[in-house]
Each structure stands twice: as structure tokens, then as C-alpha cells.
Amino acid sequence: MRRLFLIVAGLALRAAVATAQTTPPTAPPPLPAAPTDWLLRELEASPVLRQHHAGLQLTDVATGQNLLSWHAEQYFTPASTHKLLTLYAALRMLPDSVPSLHYLIRGDTLLVRGTGDPTLLHGDVPSARAYTFMQRWPGPLVLCSTPYAEPVFGPGWTWDDFPYYFQPERGTFPIYGHTVRFYARQPGRAPVVQPRTFRPLVQAAPPGATSPDHVRREVEANRYTWFPSPKAWVDESPFRTSPELLLALLRDTLHRDVQPGRWQLRPGEQPRTLHGLPIDSLLRRTIRVSDNLLAEQLLLLCSAQLGHDSLSAGRVIRHVRRQGWLRGLPDSTAWVDGSGLSRLNLTTPRNQVALLLKLHQLVPEPRLLSLLAAGGGQGTLRRAFRPLDKKPWLWGKTGTLSNNHNLCGFVRTKAGHLLAFSFMNNNHLAESPVIRREMERLLTLVREQL
Fold first, then answer.
1. Collapsing DSSP states into helix, strand and coil, what is residue 297?
2. What CATH code is carried by the domain that includes residue 324?
3. Are residues 130 and 65 in the same domain?
4. Are 205 and 148 in contact (CB under 8 A)?
5. Contact 193, 181 (CB under 8 A)
6. Do 87 and 231 fall within a single domain?
7. Which residues form a coiled coil (predicted)?
8. Which end of the chain is more exposed for a tag (fewer CB within 10 A), N or C?
């Protein structure tokens, strides 16, 4: 009898486990028809939001129900939240791994051409595939230029940000992230300079000279001045790009000769493509830490997918529009670059939420959330929106320029709803942390009450 009981109990347990594995998790209770009157009152009464241009759109991802639209039809400068458009284009146009080089083999000679891949010797997201391929080629190595249809700076970029790490020049064959890195490990001592090609171009500031920056670069030349500091520091500054400098850097780092050449296909020749990092590695770094160079280069990588004649961010933007991929956004969008550095970009909070919903439909939810910065986890949100109950509850993309601070992404509510939001703040005189803390207060209330 006991044996029969154990057999029956075991079968029942097995059936229960099978049912648990096949039954989808219980859906959260439906949201009420008008659940956010209290949130509107909070927004209107906020002393932090009162004096500047602010807007919020909040939408339930599962149903598409708009929960709140507060100034959501008005236009804002999106800053780096505009990288969500770049992410959308990249997810639609790029393969699973980054196209690092186009190349031809003629006899014992290797001809290479840039695709816009920014990872060659990049300090934060380096790929060794192209480097090893070129270094180990046993015969002559020839670098061919890729036509580039645009200036190295984007339209509407701030000209006097040229010496800062966040505004490197764009290009078809980036190397070292187009920046020089300085490591001052001992206070008062000259910093270590990487790459070493730039070491003769670095000098100490005159005695008594001061600067709010560790390093300053001349406007038109790769000449740098460093300033003593009582503490150790690390900094980086962009360099002026040129074909001659690219050749010199390649020769120095590959420890071999590299000759310039022309990319002219012969009858029957078909260029090959060398692939590097998994595409999500590049996308994740771009979005989480809001890397402007990586974002700009993503559009150039997309341009390379459209043909081998030239690279152009504008070409990709026009292609996305012609394909109708932005159809369904409630408002037109001014889109001029990949990073959001330009103040010529304009969009609305409800546009950003519609774009988030498109992204959610395009790729599986776990993959999408893994590409965004997670509150309290990494990137630009590592010190904000900390996990509650040991679980992250907000994933997003920040966007900050002088007097502008925005956040777009997803909130997982306490009841289990996934909400898409766009919270935009323009033309404020408060420090960005003040704006961030108010957004955090209000979005935490959304998490708790919906």
C-alpha cells in the first residue's frame, strides 16, 4: 500500500512540475482606465519642474494603453536619448557581428578598407580580430581610403568641445577611439601618453599656469599641454585625424610597413568582409555609457551595408525614413546625427515612447533590456534607480547637454507591468543631479503605485 501511495504521489508531483513549466506566469492585474491623476498633480506641483520645459509620456507596453501624456506632444532637444534611433537603425541593418574590414587579396598583397568599425585598439571596447589579421598577413599590406561624404564633426555640434573626450572626430577607419589617453599616476609628474606617437607632442604647462582641465589641446593641431594636479588622474583628449596620421599609427602599432593605395575593383573581383565583435557588445557599450563616437560610427557601419562607394550618416537616416521604419511615430523627427550631440535634433516624448515600443517589438525583451543601462547596475544609471527587492526595475537611456537632462526607457512596476516612458527636461538652470533626483522620485512613485 505504501509503495502504491509513493508511485501515485510521484506521478502527481511530476504532473505538477510539467504544468508549472508550460503554464505562462500569471499576468499582472489590468490597469485602471485613468490610473495617473495623482501623477499629473505631482508633476504640476513639482517646484523642480516648474520653471523649465518638461514633458512625460507613460505607456503600458503590453496593451499600448497611454497612461499619461504631459506636454508629450511638444518638441525637445533629446541629447543622447537620440541614440535610441541609432540603436533601432543598427538592429535593423547590421549583422550579428561587426563588419570590421573590407579587403581584397591580390597575389601576396592584402588591400584593406575601413567600414567605420570603431573598435580597433579602442580603450574600452577593443577588438583584436582586424589587428591580428593585418599584423599576421605575410605579404605586403595596403591601406585604401574609403570615401567619406561628411565633415568629421556633425551638424550643430559645439565647436569648443573639440578637446573633450566625448566629442572625437568621426571617420571611416577609427583607431584608438580617435583619442589620446593620459595617465598621471604620480601627482606633479608627467603623465604616461598612449599611443606613444603623441609623446613628443605633449608638454607641461608653464609654471603657475592653471586650468580646470588636466589636458588642453590646440584647436588646429595635435599639440597638448598638461597641468599639474595634487592627485593622480586619468584623462583623454581627441586627436585631429588625417590619412597620414592613420598610416603612422598603423605602422607603429602593427610593427610592420603599411602602404597607401587605391581601392579600384578589377573585373570579377568581389570584396570580402572580416567580422569582429558580436554586435551586441558594441551596442551595449554605446547605449549603457552613452559613447558618442561609437554611436556615430554605428551609423557609418550601417552606411557600409548599403554599398561600398562612400560612408555617410545622412545616407542611413534617409534610408530609414524611405523604408518606412519610423512609420507609426506620432510626430515628425529632426534627426541629423547618431550620438545626439547636435542641438538640431528634435523630437517629442511621445515619439520616444513609440520608438521604445518599436524596439520592444523588434527584439526579445531580455535582449533589449540588456542593451540599456540598468538602474543601480552599470553605465549612466549606476548611481540612480537602485534595485528594490534585489531586482532592477528601471532600464533606460539618459541624455544630457548643458541645460538639458532627459531619460527614456522602461519601468517594471511592483504589480508586474512593464511601462515605457520618456521624461524630458530642457532649458533648465538647475544642476542635472537635481533634475535626475526629481525624475527618480516620480518614477519610483510610478513603480510603487501602478
1. helix
2. 3.40.710.10
3. no
4. no
5. yes
6. no
7. none
8. N
| Residues 141 and 216 both lie in one domain | yes
Q: Has residue 285 been placed in a domain?
A: no
Q: Do residue 259 and residue 397 come from a single domain?
A: no
Residues 160 and 264 in one domain: yes
The answer to whether 164 and 235 are in contact (CB under 8 A) is no
Average the pLDDT over 285-310 and give the result: 94
Residue 421 φ then ψ, to 5°: -140, 155
* Of the candidates 352, 301, 334, 292, the residue with the CA atom closest to the CA atom of residue 157: 292
Enumerate residues 6+ apart whose C-beta is below 8 A from 261. Answer: 111, 142, 143, 144
What is the spatial distance between Cα 245 and Cα 223, in angstroms, rounded to a whole number? 14
Q: CA-to-CA distance for 88 and 356, rounded, in angstroms?
A: 9
Task: Calculate the dihedral angle through the C-alpha atoms of 190, 175, 343, 375, rounding to the nearest 10 degrees.
Answer: -80
Could you give the dihedral angle defined by the CA atoms of residues 95, 115, 310 and 152, in that order, rounded to the nearest 10 degrees?
A: 120
Q: Please check whether residues 327 and 387 belong to one and the same domain.
A: yes
| Same domain for 238 and 302 | no
227 and 330 assigned to the same domain: no
Query: Domain range spanning residue 114?
Result: 99-275
Number of domains in the chain: 2
Alpha-carbon distance 195 to 222, whole Å? 13
170 assigned to some structural domain: yes
Q: What is the pLDDT of residue 187?
A: 84
Report residue 261 as a C-alpha cell.
593605395
| pLDDT digits 0-9 by tens, 144-201 | 999 998 999 999 999 999 999 999 999 999 999 999 999 999 888 899 999 999 999 9
Distance CA 218, CA 226 (A): 12
d(CA 300, CA 148): 9
C-alpha cell at 11: 506521478
**What per-residue confidence (pLDDT) applies to 388?**
84
Position 94 scores a pLDDT of 98
Q: According to the model, what pLDDT value does residue 329 have?
A: 97
